[in-house]
Amino acid sequence: MANILPQTMEKVQHAVLGPRGGDKVSDLGKNTKEMTNKMRLTTDYGVKQTTADDWLKAVDKDQAGPLLLEDPFARERIMRFDHERIPERVVHARGTGAFGKFRVFESAEDVTFAPVLTDTSRETPVFVRFSTVLGSRGSADTVRDVRGFATKFYTQEGIWDLVGNDIPVFFIQDAIKFPDVIHAGKPEPHNEVPQAQSAHNNFWDFQYNHTEATHMFMWAMSDRAIPRSYRMMQGFGVNTFTLINAKGERHFVKFTWTPELGVHSLVWDEALKLAGQDPDFHRKDLWEAIENGVYPKWKFGIQVIPEADEHKFDFDILDATKIWPEDLVPTRYIGEMELNRNPDEFFPQTEQIAFCTSHVVPGIGFSDDPLLQGRNFSYFDTQISRLGVNFQELPINRPVCPVMNFNRDGAMRHTITRGTVNYWPNRFEICPPASHEEGGYVEYAQKVVGMKARMRSEKFKEHFNQAQLFWNSMSAVEKNHIINAFMFELDHCEDPVVYGRMVKRLADIDLGLAQTVAEMVGGEIPKEGRPNHGRKAPALSQTEFPAVKPTIASRRIAILIGDGYDPISFSGAYAAITAALAIPLVIGTKRSKVTSSDGSTSVQPHHHLEGFRSTMVDALFIPGGEGSVRTLGKNGRALHWIREAFGHLKTIGATGEAVNLVNTAIGLPEVTVSDSGEVHDSYGVVTLREIKPGSLSEAVTIAKGAKGFLESFFWNISQHRNWDRELAGLHTQV
Ligand code: HDD
Which of 85, 320, 344, 690 is deepest in the core (most CB within 10 A)? Predict the structure, then answer.
C-alpha cells in the first residue's frame, strides 16, 4: 500500500518552493512545532503535567470520590475541547488542499505587468484547496456536485486568490441571487434532507425558475460533477477579470487550469458506492499521489479579449453563465502549477485558509461582472464570521511580503506594531502610501456614467444557446451519462410540478433528451422543443479532450490472489506496475500470508476482498495459479469484484488459469479471451493464457497497438475506461 507517512522535516526541506524569496514553507516554519518524545506534556500555559489520565479527585480509602473543579489541568483540557469547532464554510465546507509552486514559462507582459504572470524566472508558492459545494464538512467526496478549485498565490506583491470551480460557468448572473441558489441546493429547511445532493425538489425548482441556470445545470449533470480525482479536473476562474499592461491598456481575461493527467470521471454507480465505501476517496487520492512523489500538475491558461472588442460577441463577456468558446477566444497557455507537499495539519492550514476574490495584485483587476463584484464583498465578510477580523494574520493566510498599515485591534490580534501613531497622515511620515512606481495598486481609470437601476444588459437575457452548445459537443457516452443523471435526479424529486416542469425545460436544449428523460421520470412527454442551432465546441467534451501523454502513473491497480498463485505473473506484473509509477494493491482472499503455487514465495496482501472493493481501484489484474484461481472461483465476492470492475468499464487483465475465471465471471459471448500464447484484448479485457518466459518482463511502453500483455493492459488503463463496452451496452449485463 502507498506510504501514508506523517510529513517529516526532510520532506518540508525537500519541498523548497523557490529560491527567490516568497518561500511560504519557511514562513510557516515560524509557527510549526515538531512533536517529539523528548518533550513533556504541558498545559497551554507551559506548566508540565504529571498525568493526562486522572482528574483531581477527593478520594476515599477505596481511591474513589468526586472530581474537584479546582483541577486547572482537567478544566483546561475540557474547556479547550468544548471550543474546538468553528463555523464550517457556508458553501464548499468539505475540502482538502496541498502546497505547491507556480511558474510562467511564457511572459504575458503584452497584457499585464503583474510579475507573477510575466517573470519566467520566478516560482510563486501556492496553496490549493479543492472542495465540493453543497455537502457539510463530514460529507462524502464522490457526490454529484460542482468542485471548487481555489488557489492562493503567495506573490512578492501580495496575495492573489483565484477562487474557481471545475466547471467554467455558474448558475446565476447576479450575486444577489447567491443565497437563493445555495438555499435551494442545500438540505431542505424543514428536515435537513438530503445531505450533499442536488437530487431534491428545491434544487430543481430553483433551476426551472431561473432559465439563466440552464447552461450550468447541464455541466452539473455531466461527468464533470463526479471527477475520478481532483488531480484530473480542469479549473476555471469563471468570472471575467481584467489585466493591465505597462502601457496602461486593459484586457478582459478568463483564467483556466488544465491537468496534465487529462480530465477523467468516475462512473455514477461507482461514485454512489464510493460515497459509502470510502467517503474520503478524493482526499486520500491527492494525499497518496503527493506522498508517492507523483506530483499533480496543471497548465495555466488565459483567454484574453482587448477592451475594444468587449461588445463584439453575441453573448455578454461579463456574464458568468457563458463560456468564451475556444474557436472565438483561444486559450493561451503561459504557466504551470505543481502540487508537491501535503499540509502538516489539516485545521490550521486547510480549514483556516481563507480565500477572497477581492485579493488581486497590481496588474490584475476586476470587471463589471455582476457576480464577481458581489463575490468581492462576500468572501471577506464570510471570513470575518468564520475566523475573525484578524484572519489575514493566520500563518496560512499571511502574505510572504511585508505587511504594514494602520488596521488595529479586533479579536485575537497578535501582531505587535511598535510606534506611537496608528493613523495617516502622521507627523513622522510613518508608513506612507506607495506610489505606482513603488508598486502601489492603482485602479484602472474606467469611465463610469450611469443611472441607478436594478437591470441587466440585453445579452444577459439569452439563456439557451450555450446550453445547447454544451449538449451538442458531448460524445455519445457523455450524452448517455447526462440522460442517466437527469433520470436519477428527477426521480428523487417527489413533486410532479418539479419534474414535470424540468422535462419541459430540457426541451429547450434538445427534444430527444427531454423525451427520453420524461418517459423515465414520469413527466408529460414534450412534443416540441426549442430549435437547436447545431453548433459544437469540441473542447467541452472530456472524452474528446486534447490528447495527453498516455500514462498509468498514480493509478491504483488491484492484483487479486489466493493461496497457490502463479509467482511469475504476480511478480512480473507487480514490478512493472511499480516501475510505471502506478500503485499495485494486492487483494487477497485473506490478509494473512498467501503462498505461491510452488511454495517459493509468499506475500501479505494489502487488503482482503471484503475489506476493499473494486470501486477503489482503476484496474484489476488476476494472475494464474491453479489453487488461487480455484479459491477465487468459489468466492462470491471475488466474482463480484470482476463483474463490478467490468460494469464500471475498468481494464481487467488475466493470465494463465485466471483467463477462464474472468471469462466465467463476465459470461458474455461478446467478450472473448485468449486461447493460446497470444495476447487478446476484447473490450479492455486483456488476457494471455500461456505465459512464455519473458511474457511479463518486457520493457513496457504505453502505446496504442502494443503487442505485449503488460503493454496492452497498461494502454487500456491509460485510456481510463473502456467506453466501447458502454456503447455496446455490455456493462449493464454482468
Ligand atoms: Fe463562492 C466559497 C467558488 C460564486 C460566496 N466559492 C467558495 C469556494 C470556492 C468558490 C471554490 C471555496 C473556497 C475555499 O476553498 O475556501 N463561488 C465560487 C465560484 C463562483 C462562486 C467559482 C462563481 C463564479 N460565491 C459565489 C457568489 C458568492 C459566493 C456569487 C456570494 C455572493 N463562496 C462564497 C462564500 C464562501 C465561498 C460564502 C464560503 C466560504 C468562503 O467563501 O470562504 O463567501
Answer: 320
pLDDT band at residue 699 under the 50/70/90 scheme: low
- Closest-CA residue, ligand 1 atom 35, reads 379
Give the whole-angstrom CA distance, residue 149 versus residue 164. 5
The residue type at 352 = Q
**Ligand 1 pocket member 322 (CB < 6 A):** no
Q: Provide CB contacts within 8 A for 581, sequence distance 6+.
A: 292, 294, 551, 552, 553, 554
165 lines ligand 1 (CB under 6 A): yes
Rounded-to-integer distance, Cα 24 and Cα 110, Å: 29
Per-position DSSP letters for 166-229, written without gaps between them: SSSS-S-SSGGGHHHHHHHHSSPTTT---TT---SHHHHHHHHH-GGGHHHHHHHTSGGGSBS-
Q: How many angstroms separate the alpha carbon of residue 500 from the centre of ligand 1?
A: 31
Look at residues 342, 344, 366, 356 and name the one whose alpha carbon lies nearest to residue 391: 356
Q: Confirm whether 484 is a catalytic residue.
A: no
pLDDT, tens digit (0-9, with 9 covering 90-100), for 574-616: 999 999 999 999 999 999 999 999 999 999 999 999 999 999 9
Scan for cell 491509460, then name that residue.
718
Average pLDDT score over residue span 341-360: 97
150 lines ligand 1 (CB under 6 A): yes
Q: Which member of 37, 83, 92, 200 is catalytic?
A: 92
Q: Are strands 147-155 and 124-132 parallel, antiparallel or unpaired?
A: antiparallel
For ligand 1, the distance from its centroid to the CA atom of residue 334, given in whole angstroms, is 26
What is the average pLDDT across 140-161?
A: 98
Mutational pocket test of ligand 1: of 88, 90, 92, 236, the residue with most ligand atoms within 8 Å of the beta carbon = 92
Global pTM reads 0.96
Amino acid at 195: Q
Residue 630 C-alpha cell reads as: 480455484
Q: Whose CA is nearest to atom 26 of ligand 1?
A: 375
CA distance 680 to 682: 6
The helix (H) or strand (E) run that includes residue 259 is strand 250-259
Q: Is 572 exposed, middle or buried (0-12, 13-18, 19+ CB in 10 A)?
A: buried
Ligand 1 pocket test target in 88, 90, 91 with most atoms within 8 Å of CB: 91
Q: Would you give the end-to-end CA distance of the chain in angstroms?
A: 29
- Ligand 1 proximity of 379 Cβ (cutoff 6 Å): yes
Q: Which of 264, 254, 262 is nearest to 332 (CA)?
A: 254
- % of the chain beyond a pLDDT of 90: 92
pLDDT of residue 698: 66
Res 6 pLDDT > 70: no
379 is in an annotated binding site: yes
pLDDT tens for 214-253 read: 999 999 999 999 999 999 999 999 999 999 999 999 999 9
* Residue 451 neighbours by CB distance under 10 Å: 5
Cα of 321 to ligand 1 centre, how many Å?
15
Query: Do residues 627 and 563 touch, judged by C-beta distance below 8 A?
Result: yes
Burial of residue 201 (CB within 10 Å: 0-12, 13-18, 19+) is: middle
Residue 21 in this model has a pLDDT that exceeds 90:
no
For a ligand 1 pocket test, name from 86, 88, 89 the mutation site with the most ligand atoms within 8 angstroms of its C-beta. 89
Go through the domains of the chain in sequence order and give each one's CATH number. Answer: 95-218+227-393 (2.40.180.10), 467-540 (1.20.1370.20), 556-727 (3.40.50.880)
The answer to whether the CB of 238 is under 6 A from ligand 1 is yes
- Relative to the CA of 164, which ligand 1 atom is closest? 22
Separation of 90 CA from ligand 1 center, angstroms? 9
How much is the pLDDT for 549? 87
Q: Using DSSP bridges, classify how beta strands 619-622 and 332-341 pair: parallel, antiparallel or unpaired.
A: unpaired
Mean of all residue pLDDT scores within the chain? 94
CB-CB contact of 533 with 465 (8 Å): yes
